[in-house]
Design goal:
Layout lengths: L7 E12 L10 E17 L4 E4 L5 E3 L8 H14 L5 E7 L2 E2 L2 E2 L4 H16 L6 H14 L7 H5 L5 E5 L3 H10 L2 H6 L6 E5 L5 E7 L6 H12 L3 H24 L2 H22 L6 H7 L4 E5 L6 E7 L5 E5 L4
Parallel strand pairs: 3-5, 10-13
Antiparallel strand pairs: 1-2, 2-5, 2-8, 3-4, 6-7, 8-9, 10-12, 11-12
Helix pairs in contact: 1-2, 2-3, 8-9
């Protein structure tokens, strides 16, 4: 997409979880998440009044105009105004490649759209920022607007490539929120938070396929929380194993250990099956199982029985991700 010279813009990337599903909901837990070759671009230009247009809804709305499809974005822009202390007016245009026509692919568009907007708005205001600042802004907005989750999709949408993400200490950040301004919270070091890029050297092909099934991640998060008190020992074992495997996988991908990388993926799948065995959170549909069984290793990506399934195989040359959005 051509970037016009009279606009400033921000880019965020779609994501796929490679490892760490469910466990990443716990403080200090780890995940590996990769970007995909689809993105959201937010463009901002000066205007006489604040307007928002996106390519999904194909309409333009004002900042305070009631529209359920734009409510989250409107609230986020008001939040950013509080952070920037700016009263500039502008036209915001959002190009979204993470949805098809009436299709949700599960590529993390809700987190990515806020990342793209935050980048564009700070560029528009000529405020310097880095990826951690953007992550904290979007996460702080989510936490103060009762949007729950690991925030891994936010971390992964910041840059291209594979992101190693360790979840922050939620209690620590909640205490920050009680006693500090937005700027002070953003400038603070968040206990536990790690976001860094992994450069994969393992010769692995990842064949990511859209299942055609749409799963509400919120429902799975709810199931996770409801079961925790009843299966404390099992949950602890699952989370500990997941974190250990994610750490191993990060090393093996980085060091080029292809065979061990594939073994890590097989073990991650087994661990998710272990979670299913006591939590009743569904992991794989019959179609997903058949797809996985055609590869040396495979697993779901993200929520169980969800949007994307992954197959892994050795490649001839280098790490490679192939995304197929035709229905499984």
């Amino acid at each position: 997409m051509a970037e016009k010279n009279n606009f400033v813009h921000g880019i965020a990337y779609g994501k796929l979880y490679l490892a760490g599903e469910y466990a990443i909901l716990e403080d200090y837990s780890k995940a590996l998440i990769t970007s995909v070759d689809k993105k959201i671009i937010a463009f901002v230009e000066p205007a006489n009044e604040i307007t928002i247009f996106d390519t999904l809804n194909k309409i333009s709305v004002g900042l305070y105009e009631k529209n359920d499809n734009f409510k989250l974005i409107q609230e986020f822009l008001i939040f950013l105004q509080q952070y920037t202390q700016s009263k500039k007016t502008f036209a915001l245009t959002i190009y979204n490649e993470l949805h098809g026509e009436d299709k949700k692919y599960g590529l993390g568009s809700s987190g990515a759209v806020l990342v793209a907007i935050a980048k564009a708005m700070l560029n528009f205001e000529k405020i310097k920022f880095d990826d951690i600042t953007i992550f904290k802004l979007v996460t702080l907005f989510n936490l103060t607007h009762n949007i729950s989750g690991s925030m891994g999709d936010v971390a992964a949408s910041l840059t291209k490539g594979i992101t190693y993400y360790q979840k922050f200490n939620s209690s620590f950040v909640k205490e920050l929120i009680k006693n500090n301004s937005i700027t002070e919270i953003i400038n603070a070091d968040w206990d536990g938070l790690i976001i860094k890029n992994i450069v994969p050297k393992a010769s692995v092909n990842i064949f990511a396929r859209w299942t055609g099934e749409c799963v509400d991640t919120k429902e799975h998060v709810k199931l996770w929380k409801e079961n925790k008190d009843n299966f404390k020992e099992e949950y602890s074992k699952f989370v500990s194993k997941s974190n250990s495997l994610v750490a191993d996988l990060a090393v093996n991908l980085s060091d080029g250990n292809t065979s061990q990388t594939l073994e890590n993926f097989r073990q991650l799948r087994d661990n998710l099956h272990y979670l299913e065995s006591f939590s009743n959170i569904p992991m794989e549909t019959i179609a997903m199982k058949k797809y996985i069984d055609t590869y040396p290793a495979g697993k779901q990506s993200g929520s169980g029985s969800g949007d994307i399934v992954l197959g892994f195989d050795k490649s001839d040359a280098q790490f490679n991700l192939i995304l197929n959005l035709e229905k499984l």
